[in-house]
């Protein structure tokens, strides 16, 4: 059968650095084709070529067997290629319907919005999503925004669907539901490309898998005939599995104390309701729960990006900072690894060095604001990039937005751990990381704990929470509804999530 999408010998470089090196990839209608590869291997770049965002320097693009030259993203969309990006491209103050209308222009706004609303409702129903077309995107959780992105490309008539790490922000159950839906779309005739780092998704949902390494597609395999260990080996080479030892923090001082914290969402609805827990020095406190139950708001409140409506937030050495303005001392004390790195952690248009400096400037380590020691910043940024294996850095003066998703996350982590924070707040810290980088981040969290930091690990990935946490709180509807000591019973945690929902 002819491939719906074929990319042959694609070449692309940036600033003279080769990013795609004769990469070849094909996706057939009716199939889910996974694309695997370590952070920075070129997966997003290759798909950006397919989506008309990057013009290739060599090679051919074929749609249904016919060579085409894509004249930008609108041209790719018109030919049935729809891509959902790692970093969503939604306009936050607009409603769902307005966003989808914007991406799929209609001649007249009024008729257009009615028409689009009906299309959204139809697609959402078919996909099993509960999307309200009139909700403002800024009030949606990350998982809901992901669904809007998928509906957006389907409303646009995509039949070649490229999903760049679509489940990175979803819980296991949400991811399963999404991938089942995606599989159904494929069976109904779509060609689906699934960029992912999650091997179980490849094994369970993909009909084929292509592995990329350093800009090349090095193998295409049948996932049912390949073990997860073989896929890991092909993707990142050997990685060392590790087992975190448990540290008993009983009796250690409390470094973070959250009492009856209440936060409202932008639309006035309550996101956090009486959230109460504490974390001791030398302890990882994991927060498990279905996404959208207040985790994002909690993380934002803890890192100072959101002011709580009520409640207390004690940080060791700083006192109650619930209503306090952001300060250099707080930035120095709390390491912030938020789930949405481009909203809260990185400024894409600033250089890598400036992004590195920004969270450390208040500490006085680089002089005063009036006299910044740029030499020291450059030295530390260069060292951190090396220590944390941030790849794809031609120069620390390059814009952070040019890093691959996983490498941008490594930069955030490098910066946040470059000081010795008393409290670490990590929300989905391994989102978008390949197996090796994910292991490295887990090791860093454990090292921070062993050094005496209080670590809050918020993650929708229950395995991650269970593997690393010394204690686990289950969060439902903005409250910690149950707590478990290690070793926690997975079933009991699952029940707590559901019982209180
Ligand atoms: N517009 C751009 N300008 C400069 N460099 C770029 C640009 N887009 C991508 N790159 C570089 O190309 C390389 C491949 O990045 P890409 O995002 O394709 O990797 P990836 O396999 O998707 O990684 P990840 O799993 O981390 O998302 C990286 O080194 C990245 O910095």
Automatic annotation (TrEMBL):
Record-linked PROSITE patterns: ABC_TRANSPORTER_1, ABC_TRANSPORTER_2
GO molecular function: ATP binding; ATP hydrolysis activity
Domain ABC transporter: from-to ranges: 5-239, 256-500
Hydrolase is among the record's keywords: no
Keywords: ATP-binding, Nucleotide-binding, Repeat, Sugar transport, Transport
InterPro entries in alphabetical order: AAA+_ATPase, ABC_carbohydrate_import_ATPase, ABC_transporter-like_ATP-bd, ABC_transporter-like_CS, P-loop_NTPase
Family named by the database record: Belongs to the ABC transporter superfamily.
Protein name per Swiss-Prot or TrEMBL: ABC transporter ATP-binding protein
Origin species: Pseudolabrys taiwanensis
Top-level taxonomy: Bacteria, Pseudomonadati, Pseudomonadota, Alphaproteobacteria, Hyphomicrobiales
